[in-house]
């Protein structure tokens, strides 16, 4: 089951493992909703030291049916695919254990779909249900993504906030462009999985 805490079991092995992408303490990341390839469509993620840790290169395409989350060196970590399930916009994410899109396995996957209708107001909000599991007959509702205005929160099913994304501010408190974001991730959380959810949210809303 796709979990964001290290003391949970993974689906692929059935054994307790520690992800190399776990935060050891509360950490901040910067998300630039552009690819480094000639500023084309995509996404680049920096850690607090300014190092690139994730990237998405969509080149001239937008709202693709399949998107790859890669590390700096182009190794595929997650494959995100759009699926058709009724009237809802639904995306599924698959781990790629060997670093290629072909290695994506449904043994370790998550699904995100719109859970509520958007409320068109000044403080507009919407909710997205995140289910995880080894197959569609063995899913578990584990997380929820909630947008409130321009911020996005990722919560466990019990309501505990594990990550939050907002527009990045300068040291003077001024907001930067709407394509530059700050992501705060709590301790002992798999930030690769969190980035996968954030990208999925952007895909559902046609922002990537």
TrEMBL record:
Matches recorded under InterPro entries: LOR, LOR_sf, Tubby-like_C
Alphabetical list of Pfam families matching this protein: LOR
Family of this protein: Belongs to the LOR family.
Protein name, as recorded: Protein LURP-one-related 11
Biological source species: Brassica campestris
Lineage: Eukaryota, Viridiplantae, Streptophyta, Embryophyta, Tracheophyta
């Amino acid at each position: 089951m796709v979990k964001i805490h290290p003391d949970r079991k993974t689906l692929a092995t059935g054994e307790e493992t520690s992800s190399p992408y776990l935060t050891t303490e509360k950490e901040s990341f910067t998300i630039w909703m552009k690819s480094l390839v000639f500023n084309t469509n995509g996404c680049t993620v920096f850690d607090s030291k300014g190092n690139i840790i994730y990237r998405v290169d969509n080149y001239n395409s937008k709202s693709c049916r399949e998107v790859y989350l890669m590390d700096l060196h182009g190794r595929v970590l997650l494959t995100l695919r759009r699926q058709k399930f009724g009237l809802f916009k639904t995306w599924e994410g698959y781990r790629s254990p060997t670093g290629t899109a072909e290695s994506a396995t449904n043994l370790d996957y998550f699904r995100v779909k719109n859970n509520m209708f958007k409320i068109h107001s000044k403080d507009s909000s919407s909710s997205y249900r995140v289910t995880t599991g080894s197959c569609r007959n063995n899913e578990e509702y584990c997380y929820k993504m909630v947008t409130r205005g321009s911020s996005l929160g990722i919560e466990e099913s019990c309501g505990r906030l594990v990550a939050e994304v907002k527009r990045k501010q300068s040291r003077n408190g001024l907001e930067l462009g709407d394509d530059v974001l700050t992501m705060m991730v709590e301790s002992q959380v798999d930030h690769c999985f969190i980035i996968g959810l954030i990208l999925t949210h952007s895909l559902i809303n046609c922002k990537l």
